[in-house]
């Protein structure tokens, strides 16, 4: 029978990058983090440095394997950090990030616009780019064998075409 120390030494972790979606709404921002099969007790949300929220989670897969993630999100300077709330609905962690109201109300325009700053969008875009690169790598692995087969087919057709036309020219 293994001791607790031996069990801890035999643990392995499956790290993953959860999909995140940032939306800006009136008075607050919302972050959706897709964390399949996680429970609230498996996760932690902390503000470790000004302007950065860190979300971590780890859960057991079996006796020696664990699934875990760590996501750091930059938040706007006008955030009420002491009022950030999170709840889990199904496999999606919803994080509500309230914004401070401006001292002087801004003029209301007739058109509603929603803007996302570059630092907020960068986390989302980084995830999309990482996903696209992964798909591109898989497509590249598939493209090489397809290109090889295509080269053989073209060579065969060229040989057959040459062989057929050379025979017609001699008769």
UniProtKB/TrEMBL annotation:
InterPro entries from the UniProt entry: A-crystallin/Hsp20_dom (IPR002068), HSP20-like_chaperone (IPR008978)
Query: What Gene Ontology terms for biological process does this UniProt record contain?
Result: cellular response to heat
Write down the Pfam families for this protein, in alphabetical order.
HSP20
Does this entry carry the keyword Cytoplasm? no
Keyword terms: Membrane, Transmembrane, Transmembrane helix
SHSP domain residues: 10-114
Q: Does the keyword Transmembrane apply?
A: yes
Where are its TM segments located? 140-161
The record's comment on protein family reads:
Belongs to the small heat shock protein (HSP20) family.
What protein is this chain from? SHSP domain-containing protein
Q: Which organism is it from?
A: Populus trichocarpa
């Amino acid at each position: 029978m293994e001791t607790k120390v031996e069990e801890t030494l035999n643990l392995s972790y499956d790290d993953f990058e959860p999909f995140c979606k940032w939306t800006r709404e009136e008075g607050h921002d919302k972050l959706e983090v897709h964390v399949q099969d996680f429970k609230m007790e498996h996760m932690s949300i902390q503000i470790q440095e000004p302007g950065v929220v860190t979300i971590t989670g780890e859960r057991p897969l079996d006796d020696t394997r664990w699934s875990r993630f760590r996501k750091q999100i930059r938040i706007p300077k006008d955030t009420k950090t002491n009022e950030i709330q999170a709840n889990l609905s199904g496999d999606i962690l919803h994080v509500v990030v309230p914004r401070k109201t401006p001292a002087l109300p801004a003029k209301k325009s007739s058109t509603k616009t929603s803007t996302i700053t570059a630092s907020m969008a960068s986390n989302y875009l980084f995830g999309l780019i990482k996903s696209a690169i992964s798909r591109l790598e898989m497509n590249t692995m598939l493209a090489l064998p397809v290109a090889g087969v295509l080269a053989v087919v073209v060579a065969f057709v060229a040989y057959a075409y040459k062989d057929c036309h050379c025979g017609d020219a001699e008769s």
